[in-house]
Specification:
The structure is a homodimer. With about 270 residues, chain A is an alpha/beta fold. Chain A has a single domain, classed as TIM Barrel, CATH 3.20.20.70. The first copy, chain A, is about 45% helix and about 15% strand. Chain A has helices at about 5-15, 35-50, 60-65, 70-80, 100-110, 125-130, 165-175, 190-200, 215-225, 240, 250-270, and strands spanning about 20, 55-60, 90-95, 115-120, 140-145, 160, 160-165, 180-185, 205, 230-235. The first copy, chain A, has an eight-stranded parallel barrel, surrounded by six helices. In chain A, strands 6-7 form a two-stranded antiparallel ribbon. In chain A, helix 2 packs parallel to helix 4 and helix 9 crosses helix 11 (about 250-270). The longest helix of chain A has 21 residues, at about 250-270.
Chain lengths: ~270, ~270
């Protein structure tokens, strides 16, 4: 099964486009857990236990685990082991390097950590992405138009008559012979999300930027889904993880995930 | 002291523009060392002991350490501890993410691992780079025109009348208020290296792609150095690391590093 099929299948089974971003910051944990690498692991375990029936994916931003120091990789391994089989796991590291180096990243992320998908930065071109594409069952989300203010600095520059991010979208579409490439498009750019979806009717789109960054959920669903109301992944991080800083944090995270997922499914019903 | 001053000072002191790339691949080690993470550490220690008086910098490509799995971060820590103080250490991860995530990368690379410099990918713009720039003493090498074939896919696209990589150079120059930004320009593009050096007479340029990738050493020195014959870093990896696969590997690595450094210094003398 290629990644596109796998993603759509789990989205249907779970009735969910929700991706919870496990970008766990030890300084933001409930006080009773402490703020050690072990606290992060405990927190992740309880969040996963409380939300796994409500999501299609978990996205781990690698920066937050690297920032834990030597123990970070262990915490990531043990967190991965908690995710039920079938749920997509996204190693969000925005990596890419010359071909023989991207092979090493692919080994780390796909072999050692067993991520089902990753994110990759397109700046270094085809041979920097190709080593991630060799298994059709594992996905690669290529950065197109990111959610942050700096997305205007280069991504929106005009290349000929169209902005650079559209060139990235067109190129990623050409690379997608195994149906395992997706795109990253920030929820903070709804108009461009609509344009991009029309360019790639069949590719998964990972949509961060809901919540604290100000992206709009309704528009993200309306413009981000494919014709069957699938293939968009709505990433939500802080509003779920830190819904409560008290001992009820996992139950509060579940309530918030449920609320968002219901909202998503309501919007999907009215596309 | 800002990063530019620090780099120039160590280049003068060591009489060297050579950066040895410790991108250690366990499958390429001398047979008697084995191919475990511990073998990589032993190898790195011997290479550093044999070459540290001949280099201005060591560059560790993070992919090779991540590919070692859970032990990779430990090997990296212990390798870092072997590098004599004053020698620049470059954490080559080509990272960058939204601002609050780049802060986590900065914590991992500058606080936890104590790298003196890193490499960063410009695609996500100003706020993805800014968290790395806060300490003037630590350097950030922004990818401009990379050494690999894929550099043509986006970096050479025309933005108005000039290619994207020049826009990156101009923008990085604007960001460089603390004199701690450098650029990455592949040795495989000598003509463009010359143009870029004329655009940034004072910025460090990290030049990979000599050796296996086919870049020319003489042109890299001629076009990459500043007016004083400094500020270029010539990265050499495989030809030094794997100069011999026998028990004399460290001595062979030293001979090769010495040969390259002499060649570099000869070319510097004739600029």
């Amino acid at each position: 099964m290629n990644f596109l099929e796998h993603l759509q299948s789990i989205q249907k089974k779970q009735q969910s486009l929700l991706c919870v971003g496990l970008d766990t910051d030890p300084s933001l944990l409930p006080l009773h857990l402490g703020s050690t690498p072990q606290s992060v692991l405990q927190f992740n375990k309880e969040i996963i236990a409380a939300t796994h029936d409500l999501v299609c994916a978990y996205k781990m931003n690698l920066a937050f685990y690297e920032a834990l120091g030597k123990n970070g990789w262990d915490v990531l391994h043990e967190t991965m082991a908690m995710v039920p089989s079938g749920i997509v796991t996204i190693g969000d590291g925005k990596r890419a390097d010359i071909g023989n180096t991207s092979e090493q990243y692919a080994r780390a992320l796909f072999r050692d950590l067993n991520f089902g998908a990753i994110t990759a930065n397109p700046y270094m071109g085809a041979d920097s992405i190709e080593p991630f594409l060799r298994e059709e069952g594992r996905g690669v989300f290529v950065l197109a138009l990111t959610s942050n203010p700096g997305s205007k600095d280069f991504q929106r520059l005009k290349v000929g008559s169209a902005p650079l991010y559209k060139k990235v979208v067109q190129t990623a579409k050409k690379w997608n012979t195994r149906k395992n490439i997706g795109l990253v498009v920030g929820a903070t750019h709804p108009r461009e999300l609509k344009e991009i979806r029309s360019m790639v009717p069949e590719m998964p789109i990972l949509i961060p930027g809901i919540g604290k960054q100000g992206g709009d959920l309704r528009q993200s669903i309306k413009y981000g889904c494919d014709k069957e109301g699938l293939s968009a992944l709505i990433n939500v991080g802080r509003s779920v993880l830190y819904a409560s800083k008290a001992e009820d944090f996992a139950a509060a995270a579940r309530s918030e995930a449920l609320r968002i997922n219901n909202e998503i499914n309501n919007y999907r019903g009215t596309i």
